[in-house]
Every structure is written in C-alpha cells, then in structure tokens.
Amino acid sequence: MGPVLRLLSLVVTVVLALSFPSFATSVGTPIEFSISSAPSSSGGGGGGGSSRTRPECVEQWACSNYESCENGVQSRTCEDLAGCGTSVSKPSTSRSCQSTCMPQWHCSEWSDCDAGLSQRNCTDLARCFEATPPDRVQSCIPSCELNGSCLPEIPCTDCDLVNETPTPLTGAVVTPPQDSSALWYLFLALVSVLVLIFLVKRTKEHKKVLSQKIRIYPAKKRGSLSHKVNPHGHVRVYVKDKKR
User: Fold this and answer.
1) Is 125 inside any structural domain?
2) How many domains does the chain have?
3) CA–CA separation, 82 vs 62, rounded Å?
4) Which residues lie below 8 Å from residue 52, measured CB to CB, with a gap of 6+?
5) Is residue 181 domain-resident?
6) Where are the beta strands (DSSP E) in 34-151?
7) Does residue 86 lie in a domain region?
8) Residue range 26-41, pLDDT digits in tens
C-alpha cells in the first residue's frame, strides 16, 4: 500500500502545480499526504482512497460457582460471552481452600472400674487431627464379679455373702444390721420372770396344802372329819366340833 500512496501524492502535487502555479512556487517543496484507515464514505474529492478498521473487542466473562474443595483446591469454569478470543481480563479459575474433615471415631470397650474411674481408647479413622474426640474417661462404681455393685459398707471381698442386687446409690440411707444379742437377753429375762412367778405361786400352794394336812390329820384320827361337795364339783373338807 506504500507505493500506491506515494503515487497518489505525486499525482495530487502535479495537479495542484498545473492548476495553481503560484501555490507551487511559494511552497517550494512538493506536498505529501498520509492517508490512514478511516470509515468508508460514499465519495471523496480528488480521487482519494479509504479503508475500514475493526472496532475494539470488549471481553465479557461469565464464571460458574466454585466446586467443592478437593485436595486443597477449588475450581470453576469461565466463558467469554463476547468471543474476543483473548484472555486479558479473564478471572481466576482456581483458588486454594481447606477441606472439611468428617471424623469417624472408633472406640474400644470401657475398662474395669479402678479407683472410681473407667477408661477407653478412641481413634479417628478419617484422621481429622483437629476433631474433638468422645469422652474417654467416666466415673464408675466398683462391681463384684458375681453379685453386682458393692455397697460402701460391704467390701468386694465379701460380695459372695450378698445374694440380692444392692440398692443403687441414690442418696437413700442404708440401715445397718441390728445386733441380735440384745433380743436374746430380753427373751431370757422374760422367761426368768415367768419361772420366778411360777415358783412363788407353787410355794404358796404347797404351804397351804401342808397347813391343811396339819389340821386334818388329828381330826381324821378322832373321827370328826367331814366334807362337802359344792356345785362346781370341788370337795371341801372341814372338821366337825363335838359337844361334850
């Protein structure tokens, strides 16, 4: 296109020199024209030329949401709706992230009660190092091997003497066993009193019978002894007085 412009400039200079000799003499140098790209027009004076320029493309990017975190990176896709074919203002399609770890705890069985405490071990199979583990220590009550929990008053070594399940420790007062020796003393005292009353009564009856024998024996010997039977069947013996 350079030679064409120079040729057109030369033709224009010759035409102006032939049409206006004074203009060419006053200038003293040939006139040069630089034709740049411009919008096309319906016509131009003096046989000038024209060219069309492409307008500047403005990028219009549309991006999706970031996907879930995987291996510490989140990704997304971006598309230029203007179709410029350039990536001058293209947004970032990835970013660093911290994945959310879901712990998977596996715990062993509780250990035997020792000094009021029972323990167990817990392991996170997902290896979430910042996760809070479940309880690994709890309070407990020592229990016997055969008869359940022991009461504080009964050592575990004596649990073979306990046949029933003890009452749970809920604050209820446990009544200690009473001493049975006091009951035996009371029983013996009561029996002794009854025996003493029986002996006193027996002694009085014996003395009365003996006194009657002392009175009856002489009367019987003299033949002045008599008796009566009352309605209840009791025999009453009495001594008849003889008149002299």
Assistant:
1) yes
2) 4
3) 10
4) 37, 39, 40
5) no
6) 61-63, 73-75, 78-80, 94-96, 105-107, 117-119, 122-124, 137-139
7) yes
8) 444 444 333 333 344 4
Please count the residues of the chain: 244
Residues 139 and 114 in one domain: yes
Instruction: State the residue for tokens 């492409």.
Output: 54
Nearest to 135 by CA among 172, 168, 108, 164: 108
Q: Is 143 helix (H, G, I), strand (E, B) or coil?
A: strand
Q: Amino acid identity, residue 185?
A: Y
244 burial class (0-12, 13-18, 19+ CB within 10 angstroms)? Answer: exposed
pLDDT (mean) for 63-91 = 91
| Residues 125, 144 within the same domain | yes
Helix (H) or strand (E) holding 95: strand 94-96
Both tokens of residue 17? 């020199």
Domain that holds residue 241: 196-244
Would residue 45 count as lying in a domain?
Answer: no
Let me know whether 201 and 238 are in one domain: yes
pLDDT at 106 over 70: yes
User: Taking the mean position of all CA atoms in its chain, how far away is CA 135?
Assistant: 8
Give the DSSP H or E segment for 182.
Answer: helix 181-222
Rounded distance between C-alpha atoms, residue 14 and residue 12, angstroms:
6
| Residue type for position 190 | L
